[in-house]
Amino acid sequence: MSQHDEHFAANRALWNARAELHYASTFYDVEGFVRGAGTLKSIELDLLSDVRDQDLLHLQCHFGQDTLSLARLGARVTGLDLSGTSIAKARELAERCGLTASFIESNVLHRRPELEAKFDVVFTSYGTIGWLPDLRAWARNIAAYLKPTGRFIFADFHPALWMFSNDFSRVQYSYFNHDVIAENESGTYADREAPIQLPSFGWNHSIADVL
User: Fold this and answer.
1) What percent of the chain has pLDDT over 70?
2) In this structure, what CATH number is given to the domain that contains residue 203?
3) At residue 99, does pLDDT exceed 70?
4) What is d(CA 141, CA 59) in angstroms, rounded to the nearest whole number?
5) Total domain count, the chain
6) Mean pLDDT of 126-147
7) 3-class SS string, 84-136
8) pLDDT band at 190 (very low <50, low <70, confident <90, very high)
9) What torsion do the CA atoms of 186, 190, 73, 111 make, to the nearest 10 degrees?
10) pLDDT tens-digit profile of 48-81?
11) CB distance 113 to 90 below 8 Å
12) Which domain holds residue 145?
């Protein structure tokens, strides 16, 4: 993946900046979460079903709200994310909530041998695979991390969403685009006025590619 090292470095810097702002934002409402609010929607909960006493790996976990919501449901959770700041905030949030969780700073495309065949469930959701140039490496790692009877649970937006410009005013990319999408991010989805001006690099993946 060496040809994408610069892309990943830029995306890591972007998510490090976002993590600081998101943790303090009303969008994520960390104080409400600490008091017991959950972040998982019915779509994910229905797919996950009962996770009590299961070992669960949450990929691209950001600062861990969904991961810790799963811990509250009784799972033994591990979260993994590219952003070191996100992982630091996730550990802080787990401590504030009095929850047990492991968090690992890592690129989801890099194999972690210590995680192989460890998990009953691997979970990822909403806006994750658009940061990945290669779903084959992603899928191979997921397969390696699951126990023989394990389940992979994936919820995401329809990839047609990523055809549009950032302000959704026009169609900017082909649905079948496989080239890198380079953009300059202004603000963040949690706060459009946030003082962030950083580049990002993404990739679109059609439904056929995902399947």
Assistant:
1) 99
2) 3.40.50.150
3) yes
4) 11
5) 1
6) 96
7) HHHHHHHHHHHHHHCCCEEEEECCCCCCCHHHCCCEEEEEEECCCHHHCCCHH
8) confident
9) 0
10) 999 999 999 999 999 999 999 999 999 999 999 9
11) no
12) 2-210
**Inter-residue contact 201 to 180 (CB < 8 Å):** yes
What is d(CA 45, CA 66) in angstroms, rounded to the nearest whole number? 11
How far is the C-alpha of 142 from the C-alpha of 152, rounded, in Å? 8
- Three-state DSSP at 71 gives helix
| CA pseudo-torsion sign 86, 87, 90, 96 | negative
> Residue 159 and residue 162: Cα distance in Å, rounded?
6
- Confidence (pTM): 0.94
Contact predicate 187/27, CB 8 Å: no
- Could you give phi then psi for residue 152, rounded to 5 degrees? -105, 125
The residue assigned the tokens 């991390």 is: 145
**Residue 180 C-beta-side C-alpha neighbours within 13 Å:** 14
Q: What is the mean pLDDT of residues 109-136?
A: 96
**Cα–Cα distance between 35 and 154 in angstroms, integer?**
27
